[in-house]
Structures
1.
Amino acid sequence: MTRPIGFIGVGTMGGPMTRNLLQRHFPVTVFDLNREAVEEVREYGAEAAASCADCASRADVVITMLPSSPHVEEAVLGAEGALAGMKPGSVLIDMSTIDPLVTRRVNEAVTARGFRMLDAPVSGGSIGARDATLTIMVGGPEDLFEACKPIFEALGRKVIHCGDVGMGEVVKVVNNLIAGVSMAVVAEAFNIGVQAGADPRKMYEVISQSSGQCWSLDRCLPYAGVVPEAPVNNDFAPGFMVDLMRKDLGLAMSAAQGVRAPALLASVAHELFGAASNLGFGRRDMSAVQKAVEALTGD
Ligand code: NAD
């Protein structure tokens, strides 16, 4: 069943995801504060709405793909938010990476109005969004998860039900803690090797086949001309922005605090991504964390 979809937030991820839904014959109406982003998806057949509420009023399923918790609260619960326009029987799916506590708060407001909600953050980056190969981790009622599966299958390759509302976010935040720390350590390790005279091509050849191999190395190695698809070869065009990774490491730290668990590596990586942001790389790919490592290196 191709139910009409309202898609709020058509940026790096939401844009290509909208395109994939249109390709699978879902009618999609979009809203984004950035008009250029809206124009891009209109070219692929999306309708444009005037506000989040207007977007929701034209859909059975409202999807949000927004930067962080305050954006989701504003776009859903704000005066012109999606909740103000949702029709009886409509469903909200938040696919942004946000604080699981905010997810539960939004869910309370949504269910208080008689609607239902899933959280469904994603992994796989802009390439996964483009190729519909995302991993999607879903929290919320199982029957609603099953009913929405055709939508998820239009966007990703692995769709996993993780538990109650908010549990998709918990799993996502934990995943990104691993991705952020491993990105930072790839930058740190390669910097040491290069400073000590090693050729980054040789290091990659060895490490990609050794125990140091990881996703951040294979996709985002911050040395030009080694990994062809790596953002460094395109002036660190994102990809996944430094500021978004910094946000996610902050989310991991507050999740840890909530359960009295340590987040030692999260806090070091958080500082390093913060430094990269302060150096002007906040909106560049997360692999630009290498610039912070470089700035801390002596002659
Ligand atoms: P982005 O900044 O490229 O896109 C977000 C869009 O939301 C922008 O176009 C912005 O104009 C719009 N927006 C912000 N507030 C709005 C509002 N109130 N109403 C309507 N539109 C609004 O970010 P992105 O990279 O697409 O990331 C979106 C989410 O996906 C984030 O939570 C991020 O952590 C997560 N994510 C991103 C990646 C990635 O590789 N980029 C990967 C996995 C998960």
2.
Amino acid sequence: MSTDSITRKPLFNPDGDTDVVSRRLLNFNTTNINDFNNLKYTWVSDWYRQAMNNFWVPEEINLSQDKSDYPHLEEAERTAYDKILSFLVYLDSLQSCNLPNVSSYVTANEVSLCLAIQTFQECIHSQAYSYMLDSICTPTRRDEILYQWKEDEHLLRRNTYIGSLYNEFLASPDKTTFLRVCVANYILEGIYFYSGFMFFYNLGRNGKMPGSVQEIRYINRDENTHLWLFREILLELQKEEPQLFTPENIEMIKDMLREGVRQEIAWGQYVIGDKIPGLNSRMVEDYIRYLGNLRATSLGIGKLYEGYDEEPETMTWVSQYANANLVKTDFFEARSTAYAKSSAIEDDLG
Ligand code: ZN
Ligand code: ZN
């Protein structure tokens, strides 16, 4: 067995190792028994609590204003809405399908447990998009939006790139492809959603599509915890598998991040560009590069770009919207005792 090999974890494994201290993300002889009283990775209990507190139900957000706003959006806004939603639909569908593949090689059962909760949340996100589409569109338009990659080559290229990285791990699982699929997840959660988020929040500050904005804020809050989870996985890998973090591989991770940033900026400029009131290409580029730097430094691998250290002043409203627990709305006030209980949100890992 080469040092880069990984084995899919066994299901029933009576001879598994019950020692918490020797538990590892990869190649540990796990019993698969979940035990919240003996966690090796102490961040799991905070993560779990936060994820549980974030529980929400898409249909409890009222979309009646969105239904009447949608036909009256400016043409460019409606096109952007459709394309962005189509991309988000793809991302969440792919996540719910692929996370179990990643998890089937994770031998630290408490981390697998987090990935299962993440998978559940990605399903809720898909349900939110379906509810949004069902509320604002005709069935025909709904299908056109869901499968827009059939018509839109830019979208197809993006989806293909992301899908190929995930397929690479499926086709030849080893420690290096595991590292790459984790970085790909980290980029998806921490960069790919953000042109979309900023577009929706911009609609929100212009008083349009308030229900969609609210759905997106809940999704954003969940994606923040997913980003947190993959950052922790990558940081644990640095400790447990230090041989993976050669200068070449660190450069590979930075290249993947730079490519993710490049694609997200190109996509943002394609769907938003200078056609949407309140946003422009420059704002998209500055914000996504800033996020790229934040994601890289959060992994302890240095910056990607000179400058871009602070959130651009023109974009501070994005993080205000993104912090779903800070800004009280009718919805939160009405529901605050039922869920949305958590008082702190892991805000962008800043
Ligand atoms: Zn999601
Ligand atoms: Zn996610």
3.
Amino acid sequence: MTYQTILFEKNDGVATITLNRPDTLNAFNDVMIRETTEAFKQCARAADVRCVVLTGAGRGFSSGQDLADVQNRAEGFSVGDHLRHGYHRLIKRMVSLEKPIIAAVNGVAAGAGCGVALAADIRIASEKASFILAFSRVGLIPDNGVNWFLPRLIGQARAYQMAITAQRVSAAQALEWGMVNEVAEAERFHETVNEWAQRLASGPSLAFGLTKRAMNRAWDQTLAEALNYEAYLQETAAQSQDYREGVQAFLEKRAPRFAGK
Ligand code: T3D
């Protein structure tokens, strides 16, 4: 499949999606929203993809909605429909993908760009990265699931502070607040992301996928329901080739070779 606004490559079980509109710090236009969603769909279908890395070309991760496009909208344009038929499909596609997604945040992640980074499962930030809920700078509220993801990660007081001040949160601050999993020196950023991606792509992929499903579902469950659901999913995990291999490797005192099934 050929894309105009993103780069897509697959290597050793890792698919890398690169937002590729560097002149705008990878602002999302309609094509980029659609193509990024399609790329995640492609990752869901591909058995040889066991981990996805989402990153940005150039010095930014993403500056959010393309504001130049906003000016060219026709009379009566519905922003609600734009979200529902565009960004929401992307966010839901990411959350429902039963493979780990790493947001490799190379630079600024603003507005909807920050929302997309928050929808990933793991965030690795370059020390040059920053996070800005830029929405209020243009008179908007956070969207793209930011109101759902961010208070869960850093608590409502900090999330609301970020929203109403639109302050630039550094990578170091994001790490301290629990928004990112690791901060890497700029020179070691790609190496660090590759190490994470390779580790995840050679892990027990079925278990990783079921874990994502269990944790996502648990937000809406009582403890009793969550325990039941875990038992149900564990039944599936316990029938996998990877479980047999994991136990065997432990007993033979060697590293497991997981096939992802
Ligand atoms: O209506 C709807 O669709 C609702 C949905 C809304 C979702 C949202 O995402 S709302 C929030 C939209 N995003 C923003 O408000 C952020 C706008 N950008 C900035 O505030 C700054 O660019 C940054 C803080 C992100 C980075 O600042 P800096 O100084 O590092 O870079 P810069 O010089 O401002 O930007 C570099 C270029 O990218 C520049 O173009 P130029 O002058 O070199 O030709 C700039 O215009 C362009 N750019 C940056 N952000 C956007 C953009 N172009 C279009 N849309 C952008 N969002």
